[in-house]
Specification:
CATH topology of the largest domain: BirA Bifunctional Protein, domain 2
Strand content: 25-35%
Structural class: alpha+beta
Number of strands: 14
Shape: globular
CATH architecture of the largest domain: 2-Layer Sandwich
Number of helices: 4
CATH superfamily of the largest domain: Bira Bifunctional Protein, Domain 2
Number of domains: 2
Strand order of the largest sheet: 3-4-5-9-8-7-6
Helix content: 10-25%
């Protein structure tokens, strides 16, 4: 056994059987810089598939494009998972994770979730969760980070039009639901993941804009790229940020 951060973590071989349940071993922090940073350090040190890092509060939590993710202590699910040997599933992992977050949220609260490409989860047009995936594919691992506004709270005034919560009394139920949903989803064939994600696409048919242009969102292709119909034809966006035109 070795000590990593706040807890003792099982020091079994790095390539623990892929069938092991997600969420074990688990490292929990009352406050941490970033669960993704802690999980990446554990992964680089050989932590097994399924290792979970959670926190009550983050000081340097972030989402896509380096944006800060802030939340009152104990109000949000803040978690990062070490995943190994993803194979063909790696390319569509962000889509599978977004579907799993939707399913977990709907299992815990009376909400209907949709996904804003590439991996923000919306309820009634407002963000309830974000997903950040980082890793070293050449070393066979990825870290899946999720921030989800779980507990009923009064959001800062500047976020009330764009963000929401599930309105729960505690974070634990949605953590359990999400681990179960991820367990079921991350090994789905890519075609199954794409069907499930497309059914929750929040942008399809809407006018979107990005740094280099504007057009009508037309779903995703088999690689997960966003298709946009423009005046010059169809563009396939592999990464980056898109915004709804208001």
């Amino acid at each position: 056994m070795k000590r990593f951060g706040a807890r003792l973590i099982d020091d079994r071989p790095a390539l623990l059987a892929r069938g092991a349940a997600l969420g074990r071993p688990r490292v929990h922090h009352r406050k941490v810089d970033s669960t993704n940073e802690r999980a990446k350090a554990l992964a680089a040190a050989g932590a097994p598939h399924g290792t979970l890092v959670t926190a009550d509060e983050q000081s340097l939590g972030r989402g896509r494009q380096g944006r800060a993710w802030s939340a009152a202590p104990g109000s949000s699910l803040l978690m990062s998972l070490v995943l190994r040997e993803l194979g063909e599933h790696h390319a569509v992992l962000p889509l599978a994770a977004a579907v799993a977050v939707c399913e977990a949220a709907e299992a815990c609260a009376p909400v209907a979730c949709r996904v804003k490409w590439p991996n923000d989860v919306w309820v009634d047009g407002r963000k309830v969760a974000g997903i950040l995936i980082e890793g070293r594919p050449q070393e066979g691992w990825a870290v899946l980070g999720v921030g989800l506004n779980a507990v009923d709270q009064e959001l800062p005034e500047e976020l009330r039009e764009t963000a929401t919560t599930l309105g729960l009394d505690a974070v634990a139920p949605v953590l359990a639901a999400l681990l179960g949903a991820l367990e079921a989803r991350i090994d789905d064939p890519p075609a199954t993941t794409l069907v499930a994600w497309r059914a929750r696409d929040a942008l399809r048919g809407r006018v979107v804009r990005w740094a280099d242009g504007e057009g009508i969102a037309a779903g995703v292709d088999d690689s997960g790229a966003l298709l946009v119909q423009t005046s010059g034809g169809t563009a396939a966006l592999q990464a980056g940020e898109v915004h709804l035109r208001r």
